[in-house]
Design brief:
The complex is a heterodimer of chains A (503) and B (405). With 503 residues, chain A is an all-alpha fold. Among the domains of chain A are: 180 residues, no CATH class; 120 residues, no CATH class. Chain A contains 26 helices and 4 strands. The longest helix of chain A has 24 residues. Chain A starts with a helix and ends with a helix. In chain A, 51% of the residues are buried. Chain B is α/β, with parallel strands linked by helices and 405 residues long. In chain B, strands 1, 5, 6, 7, 8, 9, 10, 11 and 12 form a 9-stranded mixed beta sheet that branches. Chain B has a 3-stranded antiparallel beta sheet with strand order 2-4-3. The longest helix of chain B is centred in the C-terminal third of the chain and has 20 residues. Chain B starts with 5 loop residues before the first helix and ends in a 15-residue tail after the last helix. The N terminus of chain B is likely disordered. Classes of the chains: A mainly alpha (503), B alpha/beta (405). The interface between A and B is large, with 82 and 82 residues. Chain A: InterPro entries: DUF1800 (IPR014917). Chain A: Pfam families: DUF1800.
């Protein structure tokens, strides 16, 4: 039985988001057929798609941003046009509190609140009433909530982990600007999710043609020097997207491309942009190929000539890059590093690389190949859960389906993994060292202690340990939880235990 | 999680208090005022989680076996940090001068060799028994204080009770209405929790042990010497919580009954004697009692504070200068309504033969009789209600007489 629980732990933690608390019986189900438990989610490709009330398309959201920006501009101009008359602010009608002791509870509560906030200047509640959220913030939260709820409720969470993997591989950052922020969620829903169990080449094309990526890596500004637009204006080529496609999305550093290839690919994808607010090129906020900006002529890329076929020139180039041997190697290595070990077992990488080549980048086959491997089940659970994984796993174990993403978003910021906002186009790091840093561990403990204080009184910590790890839990972890001085403390310790932190 | 940022919760709890809507309901808050003498009694229950070492808090210095059993952490009436003599036999920990002052003013009392009916050694079960008021650990989701509240005459004489802290302690959970309040400061994990986790990591995951230790050290350096009152440390937090609770209870229309919990009393190692870890915590508790007194102002006169813990600790210290889970311990009463200046105890003695299971101070007083005595003295609850509703099946445990003025 111990062996089965160990395999169940691998199924749930290495491949998924951990066991759910409540009466789900995830660990028991996973123990009876660990591989089948993980792969069950691969069967229903439609299960990867995310639809929820309030989620809108890229075009709708693009137009919402444009409308919002217009509104802000008009408001600003109207304010400027109105005479800058000094409107004297009314003198605050301050009442002197506390002249009489025991005045009323209301006064006491106000006073107590004031007293407490003095010691904590960062307290949000002390600030004036918060501004209502604008459409960008609202959208971001709606998208975040939909993703969090899906992850919390998933049976195993393997496909959601795959979504997060590919979303981080092809990352954009919501910090780039208003368009990136409002598109961060829909980018994942439209460009990543439909292809997570499909073909790599299709995902690559969807990603590189998505307005969010074109905006994030500046391709909408890139003009072919010899294109009509390039000759009319002084602007020219921007290599940003082309470089990251080869360095980060496909071939990898050292994958056999040169600076000349970067420039060439940049020329090939000139004109890949999205329609702006005026909609001259198409529906505002939709992907368009702007012939006027596209560099004319054939281009040499990675030793092959691509004829001047407009949009098709770039699509053909991407299709070839997607099946380049370096891409197979780069993807297989990163995939195994993410799911199995910081130092990926070379044999497994080699087999997945061959699988990738043989199936022409079938990502479902790649995922299944990983689950079928022995290495994935025998490698020790030494990977550190990322902050996102840790928070989701905790929410699942505590059987708390989020109704508001605020707490998650705050904690992700605190722990250094702000949602959809990595520092650079290489995404968040994927090695244990990055997430087991001293300050990060201290903050994780503080967050776990908060959860313990809030939810601990209502749970039996030993029941929860059964849900989380059963007899795969170490003796030391079990004893530490048994001996905690309160349920609150026991819960904090459980959430911080190696069984919950490592995967 | 999911609501894992405590700030939001606390803010919303405070919002509840400050929001106005709740005040409409509170405006006609009744008083338990006793017609006879015009008193407006208040009761505050403080739970010390982790099992307080009663023999280190109120030391039986007159018992010839105490010093030997408690060894390096035993208190003494002399030396650099002398214990404060309460009578010729018992001495109070030197970290509690405020309680000593209350005791001298006859506004504080100690009940020694006390325990709930629980006789095993699990914190979780011990706390269940202490707070639920049932004789054994179970899954009862209501506490004796809530049921006492519910048993008070309805209508104008019923009021909401105040739960202080991020959650309502079990003792106050139940069908009678409660309101919550907590300071908004972002809570940090306490040292005890951190220590336990580092210990677990040392055995199971050395890399995490090193990372967490370094993180904690950075934090320590940033916040300074941990044993002094500093913003955010446990000592200051206890005072802060007490100050807020007292302010709310002091209001004319404020809650008359409140409960809160302080953590960190599970001193298995390096417990310390007159100075050290336990001393630090006792200093925090002492400060909290002082805050209750000053914050309640005029109302202190009508107040009883009960300080109780789930069980005691072993009479003999263990191999790491701490104590393990035991049985008999103390309860403290403080407040102007306490008939104080006394250590109430049927002292069992600390000879090996007199110890419970040859390990622990033998309990000679049932904690329920103390609590019953206070509830009866403050609110006039009948023997029958106390025996059937508040502490079910406890008819044999008589309310202790004469605890309240």
């Amino acid at each position: 039985m111990a062996r089965d629980s160990q395999a169940a732990l691998v199924a749930l933690n290495r491949f998924g988001f951990g066991a759910r608390g409540g009466a789900s019986g995830d660990l028991i189900n996973a123990a009876s057929d660990p591989r089948g438990f993980v792969k069950a989610e691969l069967v229903r490709a439609s299960g990867v798609l995310l639809e929820a009330p309030g989620l809108q398309s890229t075009q709708q959201l693009g137009q919402a941003v444009f409308a919002y920006q217009d509104q802000v501009r008009q408001a600003r101009e109207a304010a400027k046009a109105a005479a800058p008359a000094e409107t004297p602010s009314p003198a605050p009608t301050e009442q002197k509190p506390g002249l009489r002791r025991n005045l009323s509870l209301n006064a006491a509560a106000t006073e107590v609140a004031g007293q407490m906030t003095e010691t904590k200047p960062a307290d949000n509640a002390a600030k004036p009433a918060p501004q209502p959220l604008n459409v960008i913030q609202k959208t971001f939260r709606t998208e975040a909530l939909a993703r969090l709820q899906r992850a919390t409720l998933a049976t195993c969470g393997f496909t959601e982990r795959l979504v997060a993997f590919w979303s981080n591989h092809f990352c954009i950052s919501a910090t780039k600007g208003e368009l990136a922020r409002i598109w961060a969620g829909v980018f994942e829903r439209e460009a990543i999710r439909p292809h997570v169990l499909g073909r790599f080449a299709d995902m690559l094309k969807a990603v590189e043609q998505h307005p969010a990526m074109l905006f994030f890596l500046d391709n909408q500004q890139s003009l072919g020097p010899d294109s009509r637009a390039g000759q009319n204006r002084k602007r020219g080529l921007n290599e940003n997207l082309a470089r990251e496609i080869m360095e980060l999305h496909t071939l990898g550093v050292g994958g056999g491309y040169t600076q000349e290839d970067v420039t060439s690919l940049a020329r090939i994808i000139t004109g890949w942009t999205f329609a702006g607010r005026q909609g001259q090129l198409g529906t505002p906020g939709s992907f368009v190929f702007n012939t006027n900006a596209h560099q004319p002529g054939a281009q040499m890329l990675l030793g092959k000539s691509y004829e001047a076929t407009g949009l098709a020139q770039g699509e053909a180039a991407l299709a070839d890059i997607a099946r380049h041997p370096s891409t197979a190697n780069f993807i297989a290595t990163k995939f195994v590093r993410h799911f199995v070990a910081d130092d990926p077992p070379p044999g497994l990488v080699a087999r997945l690389r061959e699988l990738f080549v043989k199936t022409d980048g079938d990502l479902k086959a790649l995922a299944a190949g990983l689950v079928d491997s022995d290495e994935a089940w025998t490698a020790p659970l030494t990977k550190m859960r990322s902050p996102y994984d840790f928070l989701v796993a905790s929410g699942r174990l505590l059987a708390r389906v989020p109704e508001d993403p605020g707490a998650y978003l705050n904690n992700l910021n605190l722990l250094g993994q702000p949602l959809w906002s990595p520092a650079g186009p290489n995404g968040f790091p994927d090695t244990s060292a990055a997430w087991a840093a001293p300050e990060g561990m201290k903050l994780r403990l503080d967050i776990a202690a908060q959860m313990g204080a809030r939810l601990g009184p209502n749970i039996d910590p030993l029941d929860l340990l059964e849900f989380a790890a059963a007899d795969a839990a170490s003796i030391e972890t079990r004893r530490t939880i048994e001996r905690a001085e309160s349920r609150q403390q026991a819960l904090a310790l459980l959430l911080m235990s190696p069984e919950m932190q490592r995967r | 999680m999911v609501d894992c940022v405590e700030n939001r919760l606390l803010t919303s709890r405070r919002g509840l208090l400050l929001g106005g809507a709740s005040f409409a309901a509170w405006a006609y808050l009744p008083k338990f005022a006793r017609a006879a003498d015009g008193r407006d009694p208040r009761l505050l229950v403080v739970i010390l989680r982790g099992a307080l070492d009663g023999l280190s808090t109120v030391a039986p210095i007159g018992d010839p076996d105490y010093a030997g059993l408690h060894g390096s952490i035993a208190l003494a009436a002399d030396g650099a940090h002398p214990a404060i003599m309460l009578d010729s036999f018992f001495a109070l920990h030197p970290a509690m001068p405020e309680f000593a002052r209350m005791y001298r003013d006859k506004h504080a009392a100690v009940i020694h060799a006390v325990a709930t009916p629980y006789r095993d050694r699990s914190h979780f079960d011990g706390q269940d028994v202490l707070e639920s008021g049932y004789a054994g650990p179970g899954r009862v989701q209501s506490g004796w204080l809530n049921r006492a509240l519910e048993a008070l005459p309805r209508g104008e004489r019923v009021s909401s009770a105040l739960a202080v802290g991020p959650t309502t302690p079990l003792v106050l959970r139940g069908s009678a209405p409660t309101v919550g309040w907590a300071p908004v400061a972002l809570p940090q994990a306490d040292d005890d929790t951190a220590m336990r986790l580092v210990d677990l990591y040392r055995h199971r995951d050395p890399a995490l042990a090193m990372a967490l230790s370094q993180g904690l050290q950075l934090d320590k350096v940033a916040s300074g010497d941990d044993m002094k009152p500093k913003p955010g440390n446990a000592m200051v937090q206890m005072r802060q919580v007490a100050r807020g609770a007292a302010k709310l209870m002091a209001a004319d229309d404020g809650p008359r009954i409140a409960a809160l919990a302080f953590d960190g009393w599970d001193t298995h190692a390096n417990e310390g004697g007159p100075v050290g870890r336990l001393a630090f915590l006792l200093g925090g508790l002492d400060g909290a009692l002082a805050e209750f007194q000053s914050g309640l102002g005029e109302r202190w006169r009508d107040t009883v504070v009960i300080v109780a813990t789930e069980f005691g600790r072993t009479a003999r210290i263990n191999g790491t200068d701490g104590t393990d889970h035991g049985t008999g311990t103390i309860a403290l009463l403080a407040g102007g309504a306490v008939k104080g200046g006394r250590v109430i105890s049927d002292w069992p003695g600390l000879k090996l033969a007199n110890l419970y299971e040859a390990r622990d101070l033998k309990p000679t007083t049932d904690l329920r009789s103390v609590i019953k005595g206070v509830l009866q003295g403050q609110f006039g609850l009948s023997d029958r209600v106390l025996a059937e509703t508040v502490f079910p099946d406890s008819a044999g445990v008589r309310p202790m007489k004469g605890l309240v003025v």
